[in-house]
Automatic annotation (TrEMBL):
Occurrences of domain Acyltransferase (ranges): 6-348
GO terms for MF: acyltransferase activity
Source taxon at top rank: Bacteria
Transmembrane region(s): 51-73, 94-114, 134-155, 176-197, 209-233, 245-265, 271-289, 309-329, 335-354
Protein name in UniProt: Acyltransferase family protein
Entry keyword set: Acyltransferase, Membrane, Transferase, Transmembrane, Transmembrane helix
Amino acid sequence: MGKHIFYLDNLRTFVIFLGILCLAAGSFLPAPFMPPHYVFAGQPGTITPFYYLFYEFAMTLVIPVLFFISGYFSASNLRIRLFQPYFKGRWLRLGWPLLFAIIIMMPEIAWISARSTGYSAGFFTFLTQRFLGRGFTLGIYGFLAVLLLFILLLMAAKKLNHQALRHTEISSPSPLFLILFVGVHLILALAVYFGLLSLSPQSLSAFQAFFAGLGFQPSWLITAALYFLLGIYAAKHRWFIQGGYIPGSVWIAAAIGFSIIYNVFPYYHVITLAFLSLSGTLGLIAAFARWGNQSSQTLLTLSHMAYPVWYLSEPVLENIMYFLLPLTIAAPLKLILALGLTLFYGYFVYKYALCHLGCFKTR
């Protein structure tokens, strides 16, 4: 890859910790919108639209940024590496943690989540009657499953065409390309939205069960796929290298504008999603390229611990939220307490255990 791109590394760290904050806020979402793997930690009458708006807004930034960066570096690395060592590294980084989460962590998380909403049966009854059926969910580890799938598809594309990832001339994205990209995103989002409205109750139930199991919303999957492809496009056209394209300050202004529109008009999220995803992704890259292009020991430590702490965050957060259920303290205090304990615990587990495992070890 050549020179290390510090601002992309720092942006990735920021977005991962923003994702952990979203996970903490997820326990306070209104019941119809709360994913099934979250512990319902709110008290009756305390849930406000703020948590839902923040969760949806933040995830509209987290998903495109993470999958864009993943697509960019996946294409850049696979271009110069052989299939077997590349896949071995990706499986070590993503596959083994995903399998461990499915077998060990998610059954317990799903059980305490069910108990927080009134389920009273024991763990093994839950495991056999619900989790190994329609109650199955990957939780936040659906991110790993989707990313691993995209990487396998990228490897297959290179296998079919060895020139698929070859660099082209350094170029900036044209206005027409960006308009078409947003247009495709908007059309797909609207197609899914109106398609869901047209489904029969039985088909809708099956559709919802599938995405609950995946731990992903349909709109997230569309966004993830498009921005993984955009990251590949950016790698092929050599964005971010010396003389390559770096988003300008206009994208920061666009991101601020669409952020305001997205939150002021929540009923039009299906329309504004595509515009905020692109402006937010390029705006954050522009902001970090301008103000976050540096490295220090603190930033390096945060970068190294971001993925392991995220990996631990769901089991730790949900168990903390479950034991906070009897407390009648305000929801913001619960959120701060749970988030603080999660980060504290996650840091020490990373420092003294996870950083020594191959899947979390950094060079």
